[in-house]
Design goal:
alpha+beta; about 20% strand; about 35% helix; about 400 residues; Major capsid protein gp5 fold; 9 helices; hypothetical protein PF0899 fold; 3 domains
């Protein structure tokens, strides 16, 4: 229990004592007065702790925030984590590349810098804001290293010689789980449950994004330009990965997405929207499976938000996103990777994204002599595994 929660409980207890005395139309007893005085002192102490905690947070925010959990030993500057840290690393790396050229950015010909993988455990938000925040991310695998198995995997299989990692990985996928566990009388045959597994082999996929040819004169404001472009290249690549995680068809080296994976459960539209969503939820909960979140197309979530009591004229059925999440039983994110009319309820821990090493930001200035332009490119290599397809429910939202 947090300090604020302790204070709220204490204040509630004090109000209960006062309300009981008022309701009975009498004075406080000595025991009640003593109890109130003790609780008042405890409440004052908790308020002091809260105030000091908030002051400490304010001080930390003024020097860069609690994200600065370590410092660069060479520069003394704080190291940023999360997505802000990714953007700063990208900008600093390209700035270093530019500074290594005799006349700065405008004398660059080309170069590549490594940046942290955009799909990284360090970049996952505490409160899910996107689909990729719901899906676990393995620690980036480095070429030549072995990735330990987790009891659900047969390991990753490198297919090239020497210490270079191959492009193929394999894992175990569970396709059925039927429990017959139960008590066994003396002399009776012990029950057998069905747990069906099969090996799956897949390949890592390259996801990339680049700018069109940009005028060389833009490099006069190198830092601002790189800051904008590097983050936009990253975010647009994340959107493409998210789309393929859900709906990728496996063609042209796209992921084979969850919706295209055999064994995913389907909830047909039943009676009305709320009944359908409830039925989908209990396809998981009724079988003692986890529900860690929902994904909707933004327009479908809007339709849910606009539902009214008593048809079209009543109050809104859901007053907030929290109300919707309370009804659905888990956090809600939106994704353009889902077509309108389709949602997904799932234990998203049964999928996993697999980054390979660092990502790359590339500055390409070779066209300067031809047309006075340059390009920026982002590129990374990732895998996707869906371990238990039956823990995903595809939901039809329209009849």
């Amino acid at each position: 229990m947090t300090i604020k929660e302790q204070l709220a409980e204490l204040q509630k207890s004090m109000r209960t004592i006062v309300d009981n005395v008022k309701a009975s139309g009498r004075d406080f007893t000595d025991a009640e007065m003593t109890d109130l005085e003790v609780k008042a002192e405890q409440a004052q102490e908790l308020k002091g702790k809260i105030e000091r905690s908030e002051q400490a947070k304010s001080i930390m925010d003024s020097i860069g925030g609690l994200e600065h959990n370590s410092y660069n030993p060479l520069t003394g500057e704080p190291n940023l984590t999360g997505k802000k840290g990714w953007g700063k690393k990208a900008v600093d790396s390209l700035a270093t590349l530019a500074s290594s050229s005799p006349q700065g950015a405008k004398s660059l010909v080309s170069g590549t810098v490594s940046v942290p993988a955009i799909l990284s455990p360090d970049l996952v938000e505490a409160a899910p804001r996107s689909l990729l925040d719901l899906i676990p991310v393995a620690s980036p695998r480095i070429s030549g290293s072995a990735r330990p198995t987790d009891g659900d995997s047969v390991g990753f299989v490198g297919r090239s010689a020497g210490d270079q990692m191959g492009n193929v990985f394999s894992f175990i996928r569970q396709s059925a789980r039927t429990s017959n566990a139960g008590a066994v009388p003396d002399g009776a045959e012990k029950p057998t449950s069905t747990y069906t597994f099969g090996p799956v082999e897949d390949t890592y996929r390259v996801y990339a994004n680049k700018t069109e040819d940009l005028p060389w004169r833009y490099l006069d404001d190198f830092t601002a330009l790189i800051d904008i472009l590097s983050v936009q290249l990253r975010d647009d690549t994340l959107a493409a990965i998210e789309r393929d995680v859900l709906s990728g068809d496996g063609l042209d080296d796209r992921f084979t997405g969850i919706l295209e994976t055999s064994g995913v459960q389907v909830q047909a539209y039943t009676a009305d929207l709320l009944t359908t969503l409830s039925a989908a939820k209990y396809k998981l909960l009724a079988h003692d499976r986890n529900l860690t979140g929902w994904a909707f197309n933004p327009l479908d979530l809007q339709a849910l938000e606009m539902l009214r009591e008593n048809g079209d004229n009543g109050a809104f059925l859901f007053k907030s996103r929290a109300d919707i999440e309370g009804f659905l039983g888990g956090p809600v994110v939106t994704s353009l990777g889902l077509p309108t009319g389709r949602a997904m309820a799932a234990d998203w821990n049964q999928a996993e994204l697999l980054p390979v090493g660092d990502d790359a930001l590339v500055f390409d200035g070779k066209n300067r002599t031809e047309n006075n332009t340059f390009r920026l490119m982002f590129e990374g290599r990732y895998g996707l595994r869906v371990k238990k397809p039956f823990d995903f429910v595809s939901v039809d939202l329209i009849p």
